[in-house]
Model the fold of this input.
Amino acid sequence: MPNSPASVFPVVLDLQMPAGILGPDPVTSNVHCFLVPHESGVLLVDTGTPGSDTALAAALTQIGASWSDVTDVVLTHAHFDHTAGLAAVLAAAPAARVWAGAEDIPAVDAGGHAVLALKDGDHIRTLTVLATPGHTPGHVSLLDEAASLLLVGDLVGVMGETLSRAPGVFTAHAAAAEESLHRVGALELSRVLFSHGAELADGTVALKALADHP
Done:
């Protein structure tokens, strides 16, 4: 079982974007998964790209846990860089329950493993589900109310030290994404953690400012 009082542990994975996706040249970026310890184990948010299980196993060891402690896998959305590691994760933690926003479940390849539907206001261990559609139809963000911390998924991301909306090429419904951004921008938070990019010292201020400037 985890032996640290911290509420969320990011796991940073390299992400290679081929030429033509975000411009004429290949782009090297990162994607984050998150380990969230709770009273009876560890919840994993997103599974990253293929091969991510090695980094996730090392991160579990660092917090005093193992694959047998993983009780739940919550997918913020069904894009490849957040779900492609799912098969390896389930091979290592076959008893874990898998969760995703209901509208994204048809796009999740869980290899026959059941994927349970999330809706706005659901509670998964220490996290509250916020429906934040737009990037994908079933995109969810996850709120740790006790820590005043939001895992915002791909609703927004950080490039360098600048917070920005998700690229339009990856966004299913821009107007819905904007509504979701305004929703989370109105929250009173201490911290915001992003699936792409490092945490900002003034992340909550930056989130509100972005929501206020279309």
Observations:
- The chain has a mean pLDDT of 90.
- The CA atoms of residues 103 and 138 lie 4 Å apart.
- The chain has five helices and 13 strands.
